[in-house]
Design brief:
This protein is of the alpha/beta class. The protein has 22 helices and nine strands. The strands form three sheets. Strands 4-7-9-8 form a four-stranded mixed beta sheet, sandwiched between helices. A hairpin with a 2-residue loop joins β1 (204-206) and β2 (209-211). The chain is globular, with a radius of gyration of 25 Å. Residues 1-6 have low confidence and may be disordered.
């Protein structure tokens, strides 16, 4: 092994350590509680009842309408509940941080050889990835989906490069796990299998783009596994509906318009421009400028994840996970000169010692933060507000879309929560948005002023929990003869509806 190779390997190891330090320090500020609190309550219900719910169990309006709902992420929710019941918020915190580190190390290890083509670009990519992980890696079932996506890509790419690989036969098991852990994204398992099967059947060259047909035996094996992967997805509480679940959500114009994580990315936003669009540009440079052959498979995989991302910003994590498999192969080569071995080793050892200290310091700080138990997982509704609501004991409360999860956790029946697909079915989500904004919503957008009295009369609300940022709050506070303000904090107010 020559000195140059040793130097590059050490440099990549040092870079990986730097990124881990960045990731650990990033998690020292707690986790986003978005959706976690209702997920853990679903897990509790499943454990206590020994079954998966088939109708809405949290919303008074959902129960009144008999809205069907099946927890398609039931296995994740059981895991969350078991961990939370045993170790509290600290247990969930450790789980999320551990899985984030595991995913980062897996991708860096898998791509290590290709990353040596251009350590600078690879390092920038993983540093930005660490920032994205800090933002999006928290107590929701999608964290298991991220790991399963990485494993799926590893298996499929390994098979494509070596058709004798037996890892391919793990795909049906992965799809079954995926379907029950995070059914919302499980379709990616058969989409990626199908895409690779189609590519494996093609044989052409178009300029630098090349596609080589695989053997009949390899294609037959891949076709059989693809069929078994679809069969594996069907082994879940909602059956065949999970195959279409993501397409139904992505086709809902209202959800795509008003829910921030479902919206298309915005290049005018400086944060998104740097963290989302910059790495896409950097990873595309090599593929476009590559002078040697470009595999058609890599273009197809890139297209799938770019399409998902440009459709909805929530898929940026999927793009980051996939990029090392298809893009690192085409990183522009960054030549690195050999250096004096003695001086190089001294510098590298010094840097390694500094990084070891920083890693220990980050781990120590993270451990102290976990032991403190202070706000490890954020909540939307304060404990004081919850106490007021529970004492008042409303039967038909109106609440904001974002506040439902905290109410559910405290056993308060909600009007709506962040299960948007449940409330879209009966146009309840439209009414929530119309009432909160005082503009009448439909599938296109807000169109005209809301008839507040008629809408409230149709639901017979007896209490209103409203964020101060909503126009509805100003309406309620300006009609004290009809709405009694019982409690407010800096974020929201709770009103009693007077008869």
């Amino acid at each position: 092994m020559n000195s140059k190779k040793i130097s590059l390997t050490f440099i990549w190891g040092i870079l990986a350590s730097m990124i881990l330090v960045l990731l650990l320090y990033g998690f020292c500020g707690g986790l986003n509680g978005n959706d976690f609190w209702w997920h853990v309550k679903v897990g509790q219900w499943i454990v206590e009842h020994g079954s998966v719910p088939t109708t809405d169990i949290f919303s008074w309006i959902g129960q009144a309408y008999g809205i069907s709902w099946t927890a398609h992420e039931w296995l994740s929710e059981v895991i969350f509940y078991v961990i939370f019941a045993s170790w509290g918020e600290a247990g969930i915190y450790v789980l999320c941080v551990s899985l984030a580190i595991l995913l980062m190390l897996f991708l860096m290890y898998t791509s290590r050889k290709m990353a040596l083509r251009n350590i600078l670009l690879a390092g920038i990519f993983f540093a930005l990835f660490a920032v994205v992980m800090r933002t999006l890696f928290y107590g929701r079932p999608h964290i298991f989906g991220f790991l399963l996506l990485a494993a799926t890509l590893k298996i499929l790419y390994t098979f494509y490069e070596n058709t004798e690989s037996r890892l391919l036969f793990l795909m049906p098991l992965l799809s079954c796990l995926w379907s029950n852990l995070h059914g919302g994204s499980a379709a990616l398992s058969y989409i990626l299998c199908s895409a690779m099967l189609v590519v494996s059947l093609l044989n052409f060259r178009l300029g630098r783009v090349v596609c080589e047909r695989k053997s009949r035996a390899a294609c037959g094996k891949l076709a059989a596994v693809t069929a078994l992967t679809i069969a594996g997805i069907l082994v879940n509480p909602i059956g065949a509906r999970v195959l279409l679940y993501p397409y139904v959500n992505l086709s809902d114009k209202l959800m795509m318009t008003v829910i921030s994580e479902w919206q298309a990315p915005d290049a005018k936003d400086m944060g998104q421009l740097i963290v989302y669009f910059l790495p896409i540009v950097l990873m595309t440079i090599g593929l476009v400028t590559e002078r040697e052959d470009v595999r058609f498979l890599d273009i197809v995989i890139m297209g799938i994840f770019l399409l998902l991302f440009f459709r909805s910003v929530r898929f940026i994590m999927c793009w980051y996970i996939a990029a090392p498999f298809y893009a690192f192969r085409y990183l522009p080569v960054l030549p690195m000169k050999e250096v004096d071995r003695r001086s190089d080793r001294l510098i590298l050892r010094a840097v390694a010692l500094i990084l070891a200290f920083l890693l220990c310091a980050a781990a120590y700080r993270l451990a102290r933060y976990i032991r403190s138990g202070d706000d490890l997982i954020s909540v939307v509704v304060s404990d004081e507000m919850i106490a007021v609501i529970k004492e008042d004991d409303p039967k038909q409360i109106f609440n904001d879309y974002n506040t439902g999860e905290t109410l559910i956790y405290h056993d308060i029946e909600v009007f709506v929560d962040s299960r948007a697909d449940v409330y879209a079915a009966e146009h309840i989500l439209e009414d929530v948005l119309s009432l909160s904004s005082l503009y009448q919503y439909n599938e296109e957008a807000a169109t005209e002023y809301t008839d507040v009295d008629a809408l409230m009369e149709s639901y017979q609300f007896d209490a209103m929990l409203v964020l101060k940022s909503r126009p509805l709050y100003a309406y309620l506070i300006s009609h004290p003869d009809r709405f009694l303000l019982m409690y407010e904090d800096e974020n929201m107010g709770y009103f009693k509806v007077l008869s």
